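Task 17 of the worksheet. Students: predict the tertiary structure of the chain below and write it out as structure tokens. Keep your answer in the requested format; marks are given for formatting as well as content.
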Amino acid sequence: MLVIPLFCILKVIMMINLRSLKWVSSGVTFILVASIFYLPSALGQTYPMKPIRLVVPYPAGSGTDIVARTVGQKLSQQSGYSVVIDNRPGGGTIIGMDLVAKAIPDGYTLLMATTSLAISPGLNDHLPFDPIRDFSTINLLDSAPLVLVTNPNLHITHLKELLALAKNKPDELNYASSGNGGAIHLAMELFKSMTNTRMNHIPFKGSPAALLDVVAGRVSLMFNIISSSTQHMASGKLRALAVSGATRSAALPNVPTVAESGVPGYEAVSWHGLLAPAGTKSIIISELNRKIVYILRQPDVKETFQAQGFDIRGEDALKFGAFVRIEVAKWTQVVKHSNVRID
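Model answer:
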């Protein structure tokens, strides 16, 4: 209740001629100065004042949807207002992302973004939004490396053996993906580019179908999500050669990274991050970031993320913004170099 009177007083005094300020009492002057520092804090304390819509550009039940619902439930508990999950799949995630890019920047429409945000500019010449200009970054929630798996019949146990085979027999090895232009596909395109190797791409409609063909031996290898690969690796139906992150995965601590296995500098991860429309007030961004950092520290949240193969990051708006810019530049270059075309 105190914020409105102080704000009104401040506006009135700013309109008064500077000479007339001599009659302002020291007490009023003190209140005015204090209000300048009090106002941002009070604004942060009054957000939110109604339900928040969290747009997920993927269908219900997906890994991204699970992350969004986990965070949304905790955010509801913290704020006292419901967080409504709005699944908007379609257009290769463009429909959901565009909806948020064009939303009112009041903090009540947010986006659960993924690697697709960084990949889309390279794949679409007429993207209806700019992934950097049209969003305000809030928090990089997590990242997840992929695992490079092969069928045991390939008789390869180390990444260096795969590199030797690919170079000795160019265009003879086939690799699977969840579809043209996806993170799994581009992880291999980045690998091929950095190793100067040639392999044939076999796109599938989704990761499960692709993985089944690798298990059956109809396709030799693929990068895949760790959580959906572990069962097949444990049974001996798949062999893990390397993980795609900059560091080893907690889920597969004995599996080396691609970088330490002979491809220095290689890194390809999937990730989730919270975004708002560009122009959202910094005090709202800070308040959301503060709440998200607290949420990510909760043991049950960590357990849920780890079960999906995600490593918690919790990086703030500035670091997340820098990360997005790097990701956009990297994947745009990969798409251009590999001449990828979406279906």
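Marker's comment: Residues 1-44 have pLDDT under 50 and may be disordered. DSSP finds twelve helices and ten strands in the chain.
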